[in-house]
Each structure stands twice: as structure tokens, then as C-alpha cells.
Amino acid sequence: MTMSDVVRVIRQSQGSEDSISLQQQRESTRELSEELGAESLDTIDLGNTSGFSLFYKDPDDEGRLDANSEMKQLIAGLRAGRWDCLIAHDDTRLARDEYFSVIKHAALEGGCEFRFVSDVPDDRLTFRIQRIVESEAKAKEIEKSKAAVEHRREQGFYHGAPPFGLEFDENGEFLVKDMGEWPIVKRVFTLREEGQSYRDISKTIGVISKSAVGNILTDNRELYLARMPADHPAVSAD
């Protein structure tokens, strides 16, 4: 059967558990579209993003699948009957929770069929069991991550990406000076003590933006001053 207008969905799950790369999906779905005799092929490229929606994520989480602008375009296009067929490497590329049913309903409204490169369960019971297992596994993964973060905080370890001029020690626990960037940090504080504006400091140094200067002098000020020599003007000024 020939499918004139086809849309493909490309998505890779966040984390290291997803072994199907975005490029592999692009290649496999293009081959499938050719097998279907597609006259046009549109792409919804979600990139590396979560497959979970409001069904399992907080409303404030902007990384939700259903909050993704590309996904919203897909839903609107499906409901409008824009495509004859939706293809993906497998069903989990569309969603890893009950949001799959939302996509399926939109496709039914617009008369769009689903086709997948890999085999997917046809019966609803198997599908629901798979979604439950995936959701529980994801929940456990999130809990482990939260526990790891809490442990670091309890131990007094730094959590998050090191700011400019600092790096983790060899154990990945505490921040130490990044000797390649630290001289720039010191100079930023020195120039500020001399009365230069953020813009002037950026121009004088030449390798750091105005906003980065602001981050050093305000957002992460205490982290830097704690590592400055006691006789530095910025330390004595505080």
C-alpha cells in the first residue's frame, strides 16, 4: 500500500540506556518511508528528550514530552489529517507513558496509520504491561538519582556543573581552582575593584562576555572569594 504523505518521529531517550542513536533512526525511518512509497516525508525531530509526559512528570517540568513544541506540532498535524502515515523506529519513540494514547487518538481523528521499523506489541494488554514496566523503571532511576544528590549534599560535596574558573577535585567531590581559567577570575575582581564596569571588564580581558563577568561578580561571588588570597582587594572589601 502506498502512503503519499508520511511523517517520521525521531527521539532518543535522555540518559545512557537508549542504544538506538538519532542517526540510526533517521536512516531506518527513511528506508521505511521508501518501502511505503512515500511521496513526501516530514520529520518531527525531538532530539535527546524525555519520553514521559504530564502523566508522570510535574506540571512545572518544561522538559515534559507534551510540552515540547515539536510534539505539539505533531498532534496538531495529525488531528488535521496532514499525513497518511506516521513512522518511527519503534513505539517508544513516540512516548514512554500513556501519552502514546493521546498521539494515537490524534492520528485516528486525522486518519493516519502507524508503522514502525521494529516489531511492537499489537495487543493492548502487552502494550500496557510494557508501559508499566518502563514507568516503574524510570521512577526507580529518578529515585536513585535523587538519593545520590541528597548524599552529596549531606556530605557537603558540591552539586552541579562547576562555574567558570573552578573544577572538581580528583574525587569529584569539592571545587578547586581551574588553573587555566582562575587568572581570568582574579583579574575580573581586580578590574572591578579599580572601578571598571562589567562591559569594560569584558572588553579589557577580551575572552569573556559581559554576562559571564556578571556571573563571576554576583552569582558565584562567594565561591570565588573563598579561594582568593586574603590580601586581595575584593576580599578585604567584603
UniProtKB/TrEMBL annotation:
The keyword DNA-binding applies. SMART domains: Resolvase (SM00857). Residues 6-158 form the Resolvase/invertase-type recombinase catalytic domain. Coiled coil: none annotated. Keywords: DNA recombination, DNA-binding. It comes from the Archaea. Pfam families: Resolvase. GO terms for molecular function: DNA binding; DNA strand exchange activity. PANTHER family: DNA-INVERTASE FROM LAMBDOID PROPHAGE, SERINE RECOMBINASE PINE-RELATED. This is Resolvase domain protein. It comes from Halorubrum saccharovorum DSM 1137. The lineage of its organism: Archaea, Methanobacteriati, Methanobacteriota, Stenosarchaea group, Halobacteria.
